[in-house]
## 1
Amino acid sequence: MDRLNVLFLFADQMHAFALGCMGNEEIHTPHLDKLAADGVLFRNTYSNIPICTPYRGVLFSGKYACQTGIYGNTDALPADGKCLADRLNEGGVRTSYVGKWHLGGKGNIGVPAELRGGFQDFIGYQCYNDFLKQVWFFDENGNREEFNKHRSETTADIAMERLEQIKDEPFAMFVSFQDPHYPLQPSKPFDRMYRGKRLTRRPNAVDIDPYTKTESPPTPNYELDPNYLRYGDDLDEYLRMYYAMVSQLDYNVGRIVDKLIETGLYDNTVIIFTSDHGDMQGSHGVKNKQLFWEESTRVPLIVRVPKGARGEVFDECISTVDFYPSIMEYCGLMPADDVEGSNFVPMTLGLEQDWKKQVFAENKGRPMSPYNWFMVREGKYKLVVEQTAFQPTHLYDLEQDPYELVNLVDVLPHITSQYRSVIMNWHQEMMARADHATEGAV
C-alpha cells in the first residue's frame, strides 16, 4: 500500500446511533452517510473509556487507561514513552492538530508545547463548553484569535486553512469538534430542521431531566441559564437540539471533505470519523457518559481509504486502541511494539482479515459505584464487572437484547464465569506490560 495522508475527525459525545447510515431515519447526516458509502462503516466500535480526557489519553498513547493512569478530565499524557504524533514525526509525517485538546487542564486557554503530545502544528484550546461565546483558538505560539462564528464552523474553517498549509507534504491531521457535547447550541438553520418534530426515543429510555451543568465555563443557576430555560427538564427538546448539533457537525465534515477534493488530496488521504464517547439521553434512566451501557461506550466509525473498500459494513468490534497502529500503517510506518490494539487496515482495503475476538472498556470511579467497572464484548455477549474484586454485575446478549433490558448475569453462570476470566486475564496482562515498560524506562 502506498503511503497515505490521514485526516482524523472526531466528535465529542456522539453515540453510534446518531447516524443515518446506522439505521436512524430521523437524523439528517447526508455527508457522513456518503462518506460511509464511499468507504466502510464499522457498526460495533467502542470507546475504551467513555469520558473526554481519558479517551484522548488512549487515542494518543495507544495504551489503556489502567496502564497510563489517565482517568480524570485534567490528566495529561504520560511524560515518558512516545505518543502517536512523536512516532509520526520521526517517520517524516507532518502532524497537525485543530480544536479541543482537553489533556492536562481545562478552560478557555492555550495548550503549552509540553502538553501537546508532540504535534508540530497546533491550534486549539483546552476545554470550553460554549459554541457561541468566547470562540477562542490559541496557536503554536500561544497567540489567541477570537472568532465571531459558531465553534463548529470555526473549527472547520481553521482545519481547511491548515490543510492548505500542509498539502504538499505527507501529513496526519486531527480535527477535534466539540459537537454535540452539551450545552446544546445549534445554529438556527440546523435548529429549524428539528423544531417541533417528535423524535423517537430509544426503547430503553425513560423521562429524565437531561440538563447538565458545565465547569468550563461555569454554569449559572438554573433560572439564569438560557440552556436550561431552553431544554431543561425536557428530554424531547434535548434530543431535537442534539440531532441539530449532529447535523451541524455533519455539514462541517462535508465542508472539510470538499476541501480535500478541491486541493487534490482526496485521492491520497484516509478519512477517519469517530467520537470519543456517547450520550445516555435517558437510556436506563441516566444521562451523560462514563457508564458501560451501549449508548455511552459505543461510538460511530467510518473509514474511507483511497482505492479501498466501498460501501462495506463490518460488525467486527473495534476500539480506541486500534487507531494508533492503524494510522501508523496508513502512513507507511513500522508498527510500534509498545502499544496495545490491532491494525484494522486490511479490512478497509477490502482484504480478508482474521480479527481479534474481544474489545475491552473501563472506567474508574469510587469503589462499588456504577462508574467503577471493566467490560468485555466478545461475540454477542457483553459482561461488566466492578473493578475491586471483578465481581460480575451485568451480562447481556446483544443479539437478542440490543437495548440491554435483560440482565443475564445470574441466568447464565457459565458464560458469566468464562467472561470474568477473560477480563481478569486481560487486566493482568495489561498491568504486567505497563510494569515492564516502567522498568525499562528506569
Note: Residues 129 and 215 are 8 Å apart (CA to CA).
## 2
Amino acid sequence: MADRLSAREAIALLSDDFDRLPVAEGAYAPDGPLSWQGYDASRARATERTGEDESVVCGRARIDGTPAVLIAFEFGFLGGSLGERTGDRLEAAYTYARAHRLPVVSLVATGGSRMQEGMLALTQLQRVARQSALTRAAGLPQLAVLRDPTTGGGWATLGAGADVVLALPGVQVGFAGSRVRPPDADPAAYTAQAQLAAGAIDAVVRPQELRETVGLWLALLTAPSAQPAPPPPALGTSDRLPDTGWSAVQRARSPERPRAQAYLDAYFTRRAAIRGDRCGGTDDGMLCGFGFSSGSGSGSSSGSDSDSDERGGRVIAYAAQTGTATRPAGYRTATRLIRLADRLGIPVLTLVDTPGAANDAEAERQGVGAAIAELFGAVATARTPLTTLLIGEGGSGGALALAAPGNTWATPDSYFSVIAPELAAAILKRPPEEAPGTADQLRVRPQDLVALGVVRGIVSGGAATSPPPPG
C-alpha cells in the first residue's frame, strides 16, 4: 500500500503558493439530512484528527509557474467521502475556475459517497459531473492525480473524467473499494499499474517528480494557437525521389528509414505523452501527446507572441504511427488526442506510417472498424488546424484515417496506396512477381500523390517544404 498523504501534504508536493478559496455553506440539520445517529460526532472527530472541516480542500495555486484551481481530498476525513458540503465546495471551485479561466487539478483520495447522507450524497456525483462538463465546454483542461485510494464515484468523476490522469506509485485505483470487491478478486487489478496497462491512466509519477510533471502538463494544455503546425523536414538520407512505385514501397519498408520516434525527437524540445483509449486498451504503435516545438525542427511560427511558451516553441499536439499495424486502441487514443487538442485550441501534427489497420480476429472483436470511423470523424470535424506528414508506409484506410484533408505532406521515402501492391496483385489474380508492376499502376510514389492531389507537396531535408519536380 502506498503512503497516504494528507490533503495538505499532497498540495505541498505541487505548490508552495496556495490560497484557499472562501467557503460559503449552510448549516447541516442535526446529524445530517438522514438524522444518522452519531454523524455529527464522527465529523467532529474527523476535524480534530485532520484539522480539516470537510473532505476536500479547494484553492488557487501556482504550479511550476502556471496558475490553477487545486482540489485536494483529505482521506482522513471520513475516508475522503463525498457529501453535500463536498459537492458545494467542488461546485464553487469549478465555478471559480471558469470565471478566472484557470485549469483544474484534482488530487483525489476517496472511498466514494458518504453513507451517512444516503442518496443525497450519491447525487453529488451528478453535480460534479455537470461542473466538469461545463468546464470542459469552456475549453479549460482538467488534470487528476490519483492518491491512495481512489475508488467509487470519485474515481468515476474527478479521476477518470479528467483530460490527463496521473497516479502515484502503488495506489489503489478502481470503481470498487477494497471492502466491496468480490472475495476472489485479484487485488493487482485495482492498482495504478493495472489501470496504466489497461489504458485508463496516462502515467505513474513518483512524488518527487509530480510538481515538474503537472507543471509541464499545465503549460502544454494552456497555450492555444491558431497557426497550423509546420510539417517536419524529412530525416532520410536522400531527397531523391523513387523512380518506380516498387522502389517507393521498398524505401518505405526499409528498416533503416527514420521512424516516428526520430521525428518527434527532432520536432519537439519537451513533450508529454497521453496513453490509452480509456476503453481498456493501449497500442504502443500509436504515440500521442503534446509538446513544445523546436525552432530548428519545425520551422518558424507566424503566430503572435501568445502562441509561444517561455520554455521554447509553440505547443503542438501529436499522434504518430510507428510503422506497425495500428490496433483499435491506437485509433481510439488518437481520436482522444485530437478531440482534446480541438477543445483546447491546440494545433495537431500527425505522422502516418502503417502497413494498415490490424485485421486479426482480436482486432475485429475490439471494434477496429468503429475505432477507425471515430478517428475519421474526429479529423473531419476538428476546428483546430491539422497537419500530416507521411513518413513511411501509407497502407489504405488504416493510414488515411490519420491524414489531414488538404494539408498532408510526404517525405521522399514514403508511399500511399489504396491497398498493398502484393494484395492488389492477389485480388487481380496476378502472380506474385507482378506486384512491382502493380505498384507502378497504383501510382503510389510521393510525386504521384502530389500529381493526384492527395498530398500538398514533398518535404526535403531542409526546414522548408518543397514541391516535387514535374513527372
Note: Confidence is low (pLDDT under 50) at residues 296-310, 463-471.
## 3
Amino acid sequence: MTDVIAHRGPDSAGVFADGHAALGFRRLGIIDLDGGNQPIFNEDDSLAITFNGEMYNYRPLRDQLIELGHTFTTHSDTEVVLHGYEQWGAEVLHRIRGMFAFVIWDIKAHALFGVWGERSFRN
C-alpha cells in the first residue's frame, strides 16, 4: 500500500503490522531529517503513530512533556503528538496547533485513534 503513494513521500517508508492492525507511511522529510522516520513508538512500545502535516507549537509541548518524564528519541513533531496522547489522551487535540492527520495504534488495547484537520490559535 505504501508503494502507491511513493511519490508523496520519497525520503523514507515505514510499516508496522501486529496481526490486528497495519500502519504504513511514506515520508517527505522536513523536520528531523535523520530521526523522524515512522512509525514512531513510545517508550514501552505500546503505542505507534504515523503522522502527516505540521504542528506549529511542538517545541514548547516537547519541553513540557520532557518535564513530565517522557523520553524522546527524535526531534520530530510526530513524537510530540504521540507522547502528548500518552499523557493526555484525546485531550491532546486541545493542546496541539497545526495542520495534520495522524493515527495512533494502541498495541495492548487494540484501539485506533485517528484525526485529521486543522487546529489554529483561535478558540
Note: The first strand starts at residue 12 and ends at 17.
## 4
Amino acid sequence: MMLNEYDFLSDMTEETSTRFVTFITPGLQRYDLAITSTARFYGKKLITDLQAGRTAIVGPDDLEEPGYVEATFRVSEEDAEELKQFLTLVVGVVNFTD
C-alpha cells in the first residue's frame, strides 16, 4: 500500500514534554507512568501506564467522573482512589486553547 492511498485527517509534529514517574502508593501498588504535556487535547495530559501499556487523555474533569480511572487503567476502586490522588497533583487545571 502506498502512503498516498491513506486519507489523512491530521498529520502534525509537536515538541512535547514528558515526565517519567515511578512510585508506590500507600496500598503498595506500583506505577510506572509517562505524563506527556502537549498543546493538544485542550491542555489535558497524556498519561501512559508503562507496565500495562495503556494510555489515556486525562484532565481534572475526567478524574471527577465516577469509574473513569477504574475503567481506563483497569484497577480496583481502592487502587483507583490512590492513583487519582497522585494524578490530581499532576494534571493541573485544563487550559482551553485554539
Note: The mean pLDDT is 90.
